[in-house]
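Deliverable D5.2: sample structural annotation.
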Amino acid sequence: MQIRISTDPIGPLRVLDGLSDVPLSVIEGRNGIGKSLAVRVLEICCGEMPYRLRSPAWESLRTGLGSFEVRAENLHGANLVLWRADSREWPGEPSGAPDEAWFETLEVDGAPTTMSELRNLMRVHRIAGDEGIVETLANRADAEAEAVHRWAARYTGGEGTPLAVLEHKADDLRLMFGGWTDAAIPFLRQSLVNAEEELKRAAADAKRAHSQHKLVSDAADLQRRLDRYSEEAPQLQAELTEVDGGISDRQARRESIDTELREIVQSSALAGPVQKELRNARRTTSNNRRKLADSVRSASTLATQLGIVNERSGAEAEAALVDETIEALELEQRSLDAAPVMRELLDEITDRLARSEETGLAAEVAFEEPETNLSLTVAQTRSGMFNRRRALEGHPPPPEAEAVQEQLAAQNRRQAQVAALLAHINNIERYNRLVQTNEERVQRAIAALPAAGSDGIRLLEEEKAQLDDEIVQLAGRRASLVERLGGSSVSDPADLRQRLEQSLESAGVPQELLDEALVEYGDTLEVAREAERIARESLSARRSELVRTESDVQRAWNMLANRDDLGWLRDALALEPAQHTSNEAQARYIESLRERLDDVLDRLGAVRAQLAAVERALIGVGRHIRSQSPDAEMYVKELKSWLGRRFSDWFNNERVRRELLPQAEGDIAVDLEAREVLWTEGEIIRSRPLEAFSSGEQAFAYTRARLGLLDDEDNPPQNRLVVLDEFGAFIAHDRLQQLFDVLEDRIPQHPTDQVVVILPLARDYEQLEKTALKTEQRGLQEMAEQVASKGYGVRELVR
């Protein structure tokens, strides 16, 4: 077969341009012209990787060769094989042997083909003459190390590799089954009991602190009222005296007017009906004025208590503000303590569920969660809600909620007061209208009197009405002053003093230490409420953690027991879900499963380290074969033994035995630890160091042995290119002709083989031509011309 190689190297690389189509030829050339590189390119084209991974030589070829084309013509079974590729697109660290993906074009007679199909048609075998047994065995160890490296990169490398996929699956399963331990549920339940007891103690302490603080606070409030009374009482008392005097003066004048009116009526000859109408109108007016005064006094008292003006606009604004405050407090109360609302909700739902059970729906599914396959019947749902309702019974509100409750109660009382004030204002407006109507009735009755006495009566009635209006206003002012004086018009509030003494006695606090006690008990209450808050949060956290853990256990168990995609796991575990019904039993089983998954993850993670150790050990064995330090320990002994057995099989091959150790009897063994070959002759055990096989004679025998192994190859391809490279420097010149004779002798048995021997240029053919026989001069001249033009020459030994 004729091979042509077309290249356009990027760097300084040179590649031989082709091989002649002759059964046996010799290429002699200068160094650096690309003889060996051409063979290595052909090896790659035929699916062999001739370089060690991560070696400088491979990186130099990959980055420096660039685009190239190889054509092989006149093959047995085909006319043309064509390769085109760009070495820069080849992988830096191949995960396997070269295949069709490495080539832009891989065709046989114009049709695309695969590398496996091509290898049935053609292969390239390179036998290195510079590689003795020692280097061959060491290179074999290196090749095994590279195979391990490629395997590790392909199967245990980054994302998407089989090992990474397995790790992700195992890790997902591990995460799926939570992070709790089988002791978590009993521990959390005991923690919940402890937290409940702690909350009871903290709540009792807070309640005692609140009661004590309230006693002291009430006493301080009474003290402030007394102090305020002492400051304001003289002025208020003076105003009250003035108001009382004004009322007395007006009442005295009103009585005088009544006397004058009676005298006028008695001295006048008034008709009976007219007098009766005037009397009735006065009585009705008087009754309504009395009710008006009562309403004014009550409204003034309430307005003073509320701290607002006694007017409708002020009362309505206060009512709106109180309603808004109550709504905000109720919202805050629900956010701080949802127990009352939840109890009400659970009561409503459990009642309906109970009625549903009575109608025969107890076994029907009421709750279903697809993600975890959790489902509850009507009876189970009602039972769970009933248990939750019972847990909330007597649930003490948090300290913040208690404070809000107190504010809410105060605002509710204020709301009632504002409502009462508005009711009194409504009465004031009503009675004002009635009085106005009554006054008009009186005026009409007076107008019906005889003209002689009507003017005097009218004037007196108008003055009386004016006095009554003033008395009502003064009554309202008096009610406000009395309220500001503590609800009593007396100057000495003995009741307040008595209540203060009782409060101080109940609180156990002397009056002179009241201010300090108020601060101290306030701080104590704050500390107690904070402790209760922390205890409540701790209880809530424990309860939530227990519920969450139990839910996680149930969810994990339901997934394990019911999910179709986990059937393989149930089968592997021989799991029978009915045998593990309690949370504790389920948690124990899942914990054991998680431990197994942890072991799996550890084992998977160890694979990378083990493969790396095997690779280092194989490299170390290669170094040991070369008489270098292995620089590794793990697996070195085991791999020496394994490779030793493989190398022993090679030495026991019949052709190898015949060439290298024809005198050996029985099995030949390779001891890599001692770096020697062992055999027996008769009953004597013989040994020879591996280096002893590197002599010229042994190298020649070794080459013949390797050719013999090649001849015995099973299922050889239709075309085989055999290249004996780097010969001449390692086989003596007198043995080269013997080698050529061996190669020529095997041609009849292997007619489809094409053999090329590559030698360094060791002779000056131009000078040889001058002294050669005439019959040899032409051949020597052709070699000289080839070397001069191309740097190498080709001798065709067999055409």
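Annotation notes: The first strand starts at residue 2 and ends at 7. The chain is about 65% helix and 10% strand.
The annotation will be released with the project's public dataset once the embargo ends.
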